[in-house]
Amino acid sequence: MSKVIISTLYDSDVFRMACRQFDQAADAINLPEAIRDRTKYPRRCLAVALPVERDDGSVTVFEGYRVQHNLSTGPSKGGIRFHQHVTLGEVAALSMWMSWKCSLVGLPYGGAKGGVIVDPHQLSERELEHLSRRYMQEMINFVGPHTDVPAPDVGTNEKIMGWMMDTYSNHAGHLETAVVTGKPIALGGSQGRREATGAGVAYLVKQYLADLKIPIKKATVAIQGFGNVGSETALALANYGAKIIAISDYTGAFHNPKGIDVQRALKYVQYQRVLKDFDGGEPITNEQLLELKCTVLVPAALERVITEKNAPKLRCRVLAEAANGPTTNAADKILNQRDEIEVIPDVLCNSGGVIVSYFEWLQNLQNFYWSRDEVMTKLYAVLDKAKTSVDYQKRKFKFSRRLAALTLGVQRVADAKAARGLFP
């Protein structure tokens, strides 16, 4: 067992959860003690104060973070989250998961993550732009096309990435499209990037249902979270023929056993911004949604929503983790004993976003752009290869699918660190 070192800087429930996952993977592959802590803990972090002039003339100082977990396998990569409950520990955990995810699917990146403690819904467009630009201004010495490449996450989008790219470019003195991904198409964004995470989740669900010999047109799906990832997952699965029976966001959940009209829900959110008062289904709670009887359950919101309390009550055949870290360690132990539930772990399930971010970065560096069909074909090929390697690891060592995915990701990062040696 690895000696226990708890970093007081990052200490939080979610960071301890990520560390326990790492420890389990490191023990499973007998990772040498000399390389464990180097592989486990973040390389560096930055905390910044972000003063923003509000529309009424007052000034609010927001707090922001960037954690770069691993720089041994390439520039670090990861989203920027704008959310009122962001903590440094959460950002550190997310950066760790990004390292394993990039490694698992074979991308030349390390993991990173960023966050600002703010409810973006409480800001005007002007205030949001000022906050986004201020965040990038504070990060300029720590990010770059070959250092750290941010992307959108919860509470951010392609417009915000465009503002951040422009801020960096003005500092550099020339257009630098490769500094962020998830940008608008007009600013060097990639075809397919907006829907990439959700499309990847839906593709893997389709593949695993086929393995289980369950026709996708007979599958029912409940999705917790109707942001970018959840809504694109719903749309892609509906296009495959699955029936979406429940959707939700932070304002409430809606259940319709006859099927929810996803296009109608998308239009509703486009104008109302949230699902509150949506009349396409019966109102239920987010907790009730997780326990609905369905073929596929997709947690696509925040981390730690599948707990030891509700894990025994899940009534799905496939749990597709579209969010990062949605299942606690205690819940995972319960699910491992429930052979009737197949888990597609987050580091595999939601990797479509970073895969197409990688494609966008490549296109920016080359100034050569691909069609949507090319992007999606390449995405599915990478996902198929990762799925095959995870399932082989699972069978070979009789691991859970999560442990199989984590051991592959951790081993590749550790191998890179060992090969590079320890700088004196």
UniProtKB/TrEMBL annotation:
Keyword NAD listed: yes
GO molecular function, one term: nucleotide binding
UniProt cross-references to Pfam families, sorted A to Z: ELFV_dehydrog, ELFV_dehydrog_N
UniProt: NAD(+) binding residues: 197, 228
PROSITE patterns tied to this protein: GLFV_DEHYDROGENASE
Binding site for substrate: 77, 101, 357
Residue ranges annotated for the Glutamate/phenylalanine/leucine/valine/L-tryptophan dehydrogenase C-terminal domain, each copy included: 190-421
Record keywords: NAD, Nucleotide-binding, Oxidoreductase
Residues annotated as catalytic: 113 (proton donor)
Record site: Important for catalysis: 153
GO BP: L-glutamate catabolic process
Cited PANTHER family: GLUTAMATE DEHYDROGENASE, GLUTAMATE DEHYDROGENASE 1, MITOCHONDRIAL
Family (UniProt): Belongs to the Glu/Leu/Phe/Val dehydrogenases family.
Protein's name in the database: Glutamate dehydrogenase
Biological source species: Horticoccus luteus
